Fold this protein.
Amino acid sequence: MASADLNDAGLPKSTNPLFERKKKPICLIVLGMAGSGKTSFVKQLTSQLHSKNSPPYVVNLDPACREVPYPVNVDIRDTVNYKEVMKQYSLGPNGGIVTSLNLFATKFDQVIKLVAKRSDPAEGNPTEITIFDTPGQIEVFTWSASGAIITESLASIFPTVIVYVMDTVRSVSPITFMSNMLYACSILYKLRLPFIIVMNKIDIVKHDYALEWMTDFEAFEEALASSKSYNSNLARSLSLTLDEFYQDIKAVGVSSMTGEGFGDFLNAVDVAALEYENEYLPEHDRLLKLRNEAVSDEKARQSKEFDADFESERQDKEPSVYSGPRGGPNDDIFLRNSAVGGGDSSEEEEEELRHKVDAQDNAERKEHRAFKEYLVEEKMRQLSKANGMSS
């Protein structure tokens, strides 16, 4: 085997599990509550990657934003006019965003082609990371049909990671913190993709308290003790429930203003991409295979039912011919006549039937001879009449 066909480890390139991944960009779907600093995070991340001479491919999926503070490659606003959608369909702000995303999702295959083309090494300086900035109304994307279409389309082709941006300033309250964790947990189990929690604004409030609450239940219990909220008992119970979620989740602290922590975030992205290759992609392929088999079985069942209905209709249209003692209407009639007659016809009945047929034939022959004689007589009469007139 030529040395060009081997990787650095001396294995064929086709057997290297990371060889294909390196050809594809890692897609980051950035989600977050309104005001969590999601857009600022995308701006800082874009700036960081440009400074490393590895510019990302950026896609804006928020049709309602007025300005995008970072260089964008694909903008939903160039395809869908959010205000016109609201007027045309008589919708409110959230309905307009959902409908705009639905319209854009019908053309998302073109976005996938652009991302794949931009990551092609033949293009020069291929993109390693593609960033998707979603609308500020997080539920509009996470729980809509268009959000599922976009996420599943990306995950079926590219290594895809969900980035959940959380505001550390607002989450100092244990109740608010628990609300954020519950939302993050619901998104994780719905999308079933590698997940990173980004604790933003650590330049204002450090995220150490949040990491402690995620690993130490007693520390969270102590924070709840100082809370006079009526739902503190619920938060306490939910904290125990989310213990398994905390163990497998990756969380990093960043500052979208100063750029602090973005090195840790990029390291977490690499780990999440490997997790996608080793865990999520095989499961996705298995589920896709099962779904394709189910579709194939359903098509076979429908085809079988169609053939059966067609054969039944064809037989109904064909004339029925009795071909011996078998089930069916003719058999019923045959049995019914046999029962009335008391069994098979006797020789006397057959002889009587033969005499009747012969008598009918003789009568028909006599009528035929009589009619023929009448015609001859009528012809002679007409000839005689014609001769008398001529003389």
